[in-house]
Amino acid sequence: MLLIDRKISWQQALKEVAFDDTPIGSIGLFEIKGTVKFKLIAIGLTDVVSTSASISAGVSEATTALIPLTSASNITQDSIWINSVPVKNLTLYDDAQWRIGVNTNIILNVTGDSVDSGKILFILEYQCLDDNAKVIVS
User: pTM here?
Assistant: First the structure.
């Protein structure tokens, strides 16, 4: 049996999404190649404005798997979005769950209506778990 001792370092990838009458559909955030352990966190940079749009983060096979559906207008400046109820200014980091992704794409999904305006910063903290793994900002 061969044991390999290797240091696995933490990395971070950032993606800013700016809404400008953004229609219903998916927006690519991050592409995972290989096997990656990660947490996804979203921070409202400005208030997100929409009459009736909802948004979630996930993968194409499960669009709410990472951050559940919430009304887009619930995301305000300085709010932290890791579950269905964004919280202003402070939340428990442990509430963002660790996930394992293998050769998948992380997406933001817009449903119900277009998003008029606003900005969200998506932060992916991750560890590559195999030698060929990597994360690409979409």
Answer: 0.91
